[in-house]
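Researcher: Here's a chain I'd like modeled. Treat it as a single chain, no partners, no ligands.
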Amino acid sequence: MRRVLVTRPLHDAMPWVEAFRARGLLAEALPLLAIGPCADEASHQALKAARQRAQRGYYRAVMFVSGNAVQHFFAQNQPLALDGQALIATKTRAWTPGPGTERALLEANLPAQQIDGPSPDAAQFESESLWQNVHLQISPGDRVLIVRGASPAATTQSTASQPSTQGAGRDWLAAKLRDAGAKVEFLAVYERQLPLWSAQQVDLAEQSATDGSLWLFSSSEAVANLQQLLPAQNWQSGLALTTHDRIASKALAAGFGRVLQSRPSLDDVVASIESGV
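Model: Modeled as a single isolated chain. Structure tokens:
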């Protein structure tokens, strides 16, 4: 049976591993990203100010790029929900790129009727699909906050003209918002870092480069980190399954001999794995 390596951050990877195993697949977590809060004081102050503005209804919408963005934005605000105070103003929309982020918002006690995302049958769960469903919400002068992560080398906070964090889809969304007359702010609430691998994880990665294992990539940065962790590895015998064409391009550029694509939902990924790729 082919082994599936889930390369998401460990806390995100384990639910996927468990779901794969429940369906009879051989799966292991091999994180290629580590997630942690932004450590500097400037980021903490920026987050505090953005939370206060969101609760006052300053933003027309707050876009959360991932479940990690949700968790770190609301991490210290949970008592507010228990006290009956809204996490964000009721007139402010919460935007998500897909169902995983939507689940994180629901778990943070945000009302379902306040959340917007791509259609369930969208070909991709991404900013482009989200925009199709929310563009009519925006009027000139509206303010939109995009909450996302940063790499350690990036500056702690960004402005509409100088985004310090990564994500081509988010930058595309910001451009669309500006074209519609909105004012866009970026806020980095967590850092994506290179994971610290054990010797056993290094051995697993080197073995999986040639033994037919399937590498499941849901992030272009994960592919880049793999190259950094194993710079001398030849990936010509490697098999990758990616959830977006941008990630597929990155895996091909890294040298993977076979790169396949799937919609990012669990059912679609499992179907791709079980199809005998």
